[in-house]
Amino acid sequence: MVRRTLIAAAFAIFVATPALAFHCPLDMKKIDAVLADDPKLSAEQLNTVKTLRATGEALHNAGNHAESVKVLAEAMEILGIK
């Protein structure tokens, strides 16, 4: 029983990682599109979004896709992207 659970968990991680890898670039494109439209944000919010976007890209490039998705989600929340 425990062995089956471990195998199932390993398989889920194996399958989920590539899905997250492809999710990051889509989120970055969404953020870039809103930033190009000159969003109505304070200077502080704009700086935060740009920092989060850059951090998300760096995490993605480093292979840390789960953390990248989280960071990019923070930027998207500030921008009002669903």
3D structure, described in words:
With 82 residues, the chain is an all-alpha fold. It has one domain. Helix content is 84%, strand content 0%. It has three helices and no strands. It is elongated and about 55 Å long. The model is unreliable at 15-20 (pLDDT under 50).
Could you give a quick summary of the protein structure above?
The protein is mainly α and 82 residues long.
Secondary-structure topology with pairs:
Layout: H1 2-36, H2 43-61, H3 65-79
Helix pairs in contact: 1-2, 1-3, 2-3
- Helical fraction: over 70%
- Overall pLDDT: 83
User: Regions with pLDDT < 50 over 5+ consecutive residues?
Assistant: 15-20
The number of distinct helices, counting runs of at least 4 residues, comes to 3
Q: In total, how many beta strands?
A: 0
The shape is elongated
Largest sheet: none
Domain module count = 1
Brief descriptors of the model:
single chain, 82 residues, mainly alpha, 3 helices, elongated
